[in-house]
UniProtKB/TrEMBL annotation:
One GO CC term, this protein: cytosol
Alphabetical keyword list: DNA-binding
Domain spans labelled HTH cro/C1-type: 25-79
Molecular function terms, GO-annotated: DNA binding; DNA-binding transcription factor activity
Top-level taxonomic group: Bacteria
Pfam families tied to this protein: Cupin_2, HTH_3
Protein name: XRE family transcriptional regulator
Coiled coil (residue ranges): none
Length: 199
């Protein structure tokens, strides 16, 4: 996979479409005749946060997407598809300038092959902008196993149960995401990583 690394702090290569889950979230609530309060109870996410996501005023983190999916009893990929149909096949291609962009304050996540529903894993290309763990409002924690490989830069993985580990370009790591964890970049260049988590 070729990643066009621009200046430090630049965007991921290409021009991926911004992930918009607000309409999908509203659709899922209406199908269940749920209020925002009922959706909040099911997902453990505040009414305010759900409302902001529906209005596209807030881009959800991977952790938030996982919690929404679990609360609604669906796969995270369902929140990313443009239609309500089932699986579109067992092959999906994401070109270097495509994908579903989900920027947060700490990372720019591009969901890859998001048109394929009912996947057993979710591949994501991420530019890690955070330099300190204090930049995260919450640590990621969800029921999945994660594989990550560093495409460029230096990544530091912080965990509730392990000492921080430094991964350089070409290094990989596999871990249980049930433990709280966050990522930071080390040095001037943002780390760009490819990670895959089970659904």
């Amino acid at each position: 996979m070729n990643i066009d690394i621009k200046e430090p702090g630049g965007a991921l290569s290409g021009n991926p479409k911004v992930l918009e889950v607000g309409a999908k979230l509203q659709q899922l609530r209406r199908e269940r005749s749920w209020t925002l309060h009922e959706a909040s109870r099911a997902t453990g996410i505040s009414v305010s946060t759900l409302s902001k996501i529906e209005r596209e005023a807030l881009s959800p983190t991977v952790t938030t997407l996982s919690r929404i999916a679990t609360g609604f009893g669906i796969e995270a990929a369902t929140l990313l598809t443009d239609d309500s149909g089932g699986a579109t096949g067992r092959r999906s291609i994401t070109r270097s300038d495509d994908g579903k962009l989900s920027p947060t304050g700490t990372c720019d996540n591009v969901w890859l092959c998001s048109d394929l529903a009912q996947k057993k894993m979710a591949p994501i290309r991420t530019r890690v902008r955070a330099r300190d763990i204090s930049e995260y409002s919450e640590w990621a924690r969800y029921n999945a196993e994660v594989f990550v490989t560093v495409l460029s830069g230096t990544l530091v993985v912080h965990s509730d149960i392990y000492a921080p580990v430094v991964l350089n370009e070409g290094d990989s790591m596999y871990y249980d995401a049930n433990a709280g964890h966050v990522w930071t970049s080390e040095g001037e260049q943002d780390a760009v990583v490819l990670w895959v988590h089970t659904q």
